[in-house]
Amino acid sequence: MSALLRQIPANIPQDIRKIRIENSHLTELPRGSFENVSALEYLWLNFNNITVMHIKSLEYLPALQELRLQGNKLSSVPWTAFQDTPILKILDLKHNRLDVLPEHALRYLPNLTYLDLSSNQLTIISRDVFYNWPVYQRSQRTEGQIEAISNAVLALHDNPWICDCRLRGFVQFIKSVGPPIILMNSYLTCSSPKFRTGKFFHEVELNSCMKPLTSALDTNLTVPAGLNITLTCFVQASPSPAVWWTYALKLLRAFNVTTEPISEETVRSELLIPAARPADAGNYTCTAANFLGNTSVAINLRVVAPWASTTPRGWAPIAPAEPGAHVEVRIAKQTVYGITLEWFAAAAAAAEPGETWYTLLVGRYDAAQKDTIYIGPGVNTYSVTDLLPATKYEVCVAVRNQAPRKGQCVVFVTGSDVSQMEQREKLIHIVVIVCAMVLAVPAGMYACTAEALPGCLARCPRACPRRRRGGQAQAAGSKESTLDSIPAGSEDGLCRPEDIHSTRRPPGREEPGKNRPPHRNSADLY
């Protein structure tokens, strides 16, 4: 007792009949642990730290009648090891960590009169475990006969039983069992599912297992953009299934999914899509699975704009503008691959800043239709990436129920090609003169605001020639793709109406003896 033993002693006398080693530090029973004590009848190894029991650890113990392994850390037992102990009568395994009891577990214990499996981690076992037990089989053969059979005590209480269809056969066995098999505690209780927690076995009626059956009230939904959408599917299954949602073959994040039981065999799963956007449209698949198989149901979601699309030139509002509803927009960050916009609501959301939605219109400057993006409350930045080279773009920001106003749009042009971008990145800044407005931007991108266009035609005939002469002197000996090309591009696009874009550039703009590059300079898009 309480000895510092870490293994079974090798010098045990051969005629020893009883060994008791408790509260020690034994961690395993290796092969042939007791090969020198074949007369052993009683073996008590309670309250050690045994985690492993070799399949031949009981070899050479044909006379063993009692084995007690209470209070160890066994998560499994090699049940075929008991072939070497044919007359074993008492097996005590309580207070271990057993979580599985295979169907053949008791097949090699024909003379057992006491089996204690209480206070383990058993959740689901088959009734065939006991139907294969020779003691039970003998009791069925001699039922109604005079032949006496020794009673067998069975302890199975204090295990976390999962009372679903998988335990149905075992529950029926417990309800019907009688002498010679006697339950030490016949009031076995359910630990789960939640609606059966604490109920006794004799109080529950378990149904047969069933493959999942999925359904949805509506498999085709059309909703306005900007609303919080909840997709719902119902699953009938036993046992309770695992449920997940997929979109475009990707598993959706669990924190947007809630699954809860609404009856014994039915669960409801809901997928939340906050602030639905047109990009969220598509097929959402709800899949349920248990050990019998899996099924799924698809829900098609269509997201439409809450108002008619607007044209890029007139920006005619479809709802009356709110007094003072204005959004200040600026370029917060620019790279050769795109821009990041930042905006501030000057007065539109002053009353309810946490509930103001915004609309972004993004596309080519001359496109008849632009992509519409809906931004929820609390967000005031958006990045525009994956842009085409040498292309003129326009991005506008507006309060949700209004059309973009003057000053709420940004126009920019991407670089002509990679080499041009890399060359411009060597420069610190490019200053683009848009009439009276000066906008400093990083290399590889030109930008201006849409509100500068109307007054530009009136003021630029005076400003642009001066700028052109200054730019010509500054660019002497430089390549056309450097700063020299910027004012020229600004003059042709921003400072002249669309109907005179074809006006030829003064001959003096090109350096003598230098051929014009074959590609189109991105500044010319202005």
Automatic annotation (TrEMBL):
> What Gene3D superfamilies does the entry give?
Immunoglobulins (2.60.40.10), Ribonuclease Inhibitor (3.80.10.10)
Record's Pfam families? Ig_3, LRR_8
Q: Fibronectin type-III domain: which residues? A: 325-417
Q: Bias regions of kind Basic and acidic residues — which residues? A: 493-514
Span of domain Ig-like: 212-304
Residue ranges crossing the lipid bilayer per the database entry: none
Q: What is this protein called?
A: LRIT2 protein
Gene from which the chain derives: Lrit2
